[in-house]
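[09:14] KT: can someone run the structure on this one? pasting the chain below
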Amino acid sequence: ENNGRIRLEGNQSVTVSEFVQGENSSVSYYGNTLGSLALGNEYNILNFEDTAEGSVGAVLKVSKETVISSKGILSLTGANEFTGKVRLDEAGTVDIKTGKALNFEDNAKADGIRITGGTQAVSFTGSSEIGNLEVVSSASVSFEGTASITAFSDSVDAGNISFNEGGEITSAVTFATAGDVRFGDESSDTFNIGAASPWAALVHTDGNTYVQGTLNAASVVLGSETKAVDINGSVNTTGTQTYAGGTILNGSLAGTT
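[09:31] RB: done, C-alpha cells below
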C-alpha cells in the first residue's frame, strides 16, 4: 500500500501484484517518453513534473488532485476524469481532453493549453497566465480570476466563454464560438485586447457578446443579424466599432462607430 509518494520515469516496466493507494498517496511521473503510465490509469493524486512529456491516450481517473509542472509538451488525450482539482504550475504545453467537468484551480500558469472538453464545462477558478490557449470544444469556459493570455483561438463548438474578472488577450482575436462571449461581470472589471494602447482588434460575429465593465481594443466587429451585443459598461477603441443585429447600449462607446 502506498501511503506516501512514488516517483517514476514513466514508461519503465513495474511489476506489482496489486497497487493499493492510501488516502493521500501520490504518484509522480518525470520522464520524457510517456505513453502508458507504469502504475496504471487510476490515482488519488497524480503529478507530471520536471521533463515529463509525451502522449497518454488512456482514460486517466484522478480522484483528488492532478498537478502539471512539467516543462515539455504533454498530451492527455483520453476522455479523462479529473474529479478533483487540476493545477498548472508553470507548465509547458498541455493538450488535455476531459470526459467530466474540468476545474483548473489556484493560479494556472502554462506556456500553452489545448482544451477538448466535448460537452463538459471548463473553469479557471484563480488567476491565469497562459501563452497560447486553444479551445476545441466545451459546454463553457469560464475565468473566475484575472486572465492573462498571449494568444487565443477557438472553434464554433467552444461554447460560452466568460472572462469574469477582467484581464487581457495581448494579441488580436477572432472568437469563432457560436456561444456567448462575456467580458466582465461587474462595472469595475477591465478587459484589454492587446498589451497596451493602441491595443489590438476584436471580432465576434457568430455568437452573442456581453460587456460589463470596460473593454479596450483597437477595433471591434461584434454581432450579426441573429446575434446580439449587450453593453452595460464601456467599449473604448482607437479605431472603428462595427455592430450588427440587436445592440443594447446601457453604457458608452468611445471610438468611431
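[09:33] KT: thanks! The chain has a mean pLDDT of 92.
[09:34] RB: yep, looked fine to me
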